[in-house]
Amino acid sequence: MGVDLATSGIESKLTVNIVGGAGRMGKLLAKSMRNRVGALRIISRSPERGKEAAKELDVEWAPIEEAHKADVVIVSVPMDETVDACRNMAGRMSQGSLLVDLTSVKTGIVDAVSASTPANIEYLSLHPLFGPNVENVAGRRIIAIKARPGPKTEDFIDLLESCGCIVKVSTVEEHDEAMASIQVLHHFALLSLSKAIGRVVAGRNLSEYLTESFERTLINIESIERNLETIYKIQRMNPHGETVRRIFIDEANKLNSLDFNINNLNICLRNLIKALKPKS
Description:
Layout lengths: L4 H4 L6 E5 L4 H10 L5 E5 L3 H11 L2 E3 L9 E4 L6 H9 L7 E5 L7 H7 L5 E7 L12 E8 L2 H12 L3 E5 L1 H30 L10 H15 L1 H10 L3 H16 L5 H15 L4
Parallel strand pairs: 1-2, 1-4, 2-3, 4-5, 5-6, 7-8
Antiparallel strand pairs: 6-7
C-alpha cells in the first residue's frame, strides 16, 4: 500500500528531475507525479522540446547542465543510451540522492550503472510494464530493482504507489527471465504473425473479413509498430531472448504437423491461463 502524500509530508518534499522528460514516457511520469512532489522539472537535450513539454504539463524546465540538481533524477532515454546517460549524470549528483533508470532489460545495464556510479548515491532500476500511451499510471505494474537502496529509494517507491502504481521488487536475473517469457516471446509471436500474414495477404484488403478476435490482435500489432525500435532492442538485449525464440520456433514446427494430442494441448492452455491470469 502507498502512503497518503497529503498527510505524510515526506514524499511531497522530494524534488524530481526527469531527463528525457519531453519523451512520451517521461511526460506520462511527470503528469502522474507533478502534484505529489516538492518540485518537478523536465530536462531535455533540446531546450525547445523541454520548454514545450514543461509548458504543456505545467511544470518547470531546466537545462541539461542542471539535470543532476534534484533529490531524484529519472533517466528516461533509449535503452542503449541509458548507461552512458546515468554515468554522466551520477558523478555530479549530491550524496544521498537517487538515480532512477527506466529500462526493459536489466542485464548489462544495472551492473554497468552500479559499477560506474558513485557509491554515495542510491540507484533504482525500474521497468514500467505499460507503454506511454496509457492515460495514467494508476493500477499499472512497475518492476523495481533496488540496485543500491536507501531512504530515497523507499520514499520514491512510496511515491509511485501513491500514484496508484503496483510495484513489484525483483532482481536482475529474475526480471530478465520473466520478461523473456512474457515480453520477448509475446513480441516475437506478434512479429512472426505480422510477417506471415503480410506474405499471405500480399497487399489485398481483407478488412471486411476481420474477426473480432483479430481486431483485438491488430490493436497489439499497432502498438508493436509504434514502439518497434524499443521492441527490437528488447529482443536483442535480453540474455534469454535467443533461447526462448528457439523454443517458440520448435513448438511452432511441432504444431505445424498437426500431429499432436489435443487433450494435452488443452491441458497446456489451461495451466498457462491459471498460472498467468491475475487473481481477481
